[in-house]
Design brief:
It contains 7 helices and 4 strands; from the N terminus they run αααβααβαββα. The protein has about 130 residues and is an alpha+beta fold. β3 and β4 form a beta hairpin. It is globular.
Length: about 130
C-alpha cells in the first residue's frame, strides 16, 4: 500500500497544472530558434586526425569573429554519440562538422580539409536561405 501511495504522489507531482500551461513557451520563441545556426564538431580521443583539426581549425575558429557569428560546439562522439541531434546521415568518419539550423542538419564537412576550405564550406552551408 505504501508503494502505490508513493507512486501516486510522484505521478501527481510530475503532471503539469493548469497554471503551467499559462507559462508555456510561445510560438515566437520557437520561430526564433528555427533560425539559430550552429556548427557541431564530432571528434573522439581515438581519432588520429582530430588533434590536427583542433589545432588548425577549431582553436582559431573560437578566437575569430566567425566563432561569434556561427557558434561551434565540440562533442566527444565516443561518450555522447550525436547527443540527440537530428542528422541526415550517421557519422562514419571523425572529425565530422555538422551545421545545424533550428536543430536540423543543413550540411556537413567530413574529415579535415584544412582551415581555408573548412571556412569556405561553413560560409557556403550556413548562408541564409533566400
Amino acid at each position: 500500500m505504501r508503494v502505490s501511495s508513493a507512486i501516486a504522489v510522484v505521478t501527481l507531482a510530475l503532471m503539469p497544472s493548469a497554471s503551467d500551461a499559462l507559462h508555456a513557451p510561445r510560438a515566437v520563441l520557437l520561430t526564433a530558434d528555427e533560425r539559430h545556426t550552429e556548427v557541431v564538431v564530432f571528434e573522439a580521443g581515438r581519432c588520429v586526425a582530430c588533434p590536427r583539426f583542433r589545432d588548425a581549425v577549431v582553436r582559431p575558429y573560437f578566437r575569430s569573429d566567425r566563432g561569434d557569428a556561427l557558434p561551434m560546439h565540440v562533442v566527444d562522439y565516443d561518450a555522447l554519440g550525436t547527443a540527440g541531434r537530428a542528422l541526415r546521415a550517421p557519422v562514419t568518419e571523425l572529425p565530422t562538422s555538422v551545421v545545424l539550423r533550428g536543430g536540423i542538419e543543413i550540411g556537413r564537412v567530413v574529415g579535415n580539409p584544412g582551415a581555408t576550405r573548412f571556412l569556405a564550406a561553413m560560409d557556403r552551408i550556413s548562408a541564409p536561405e533566400g
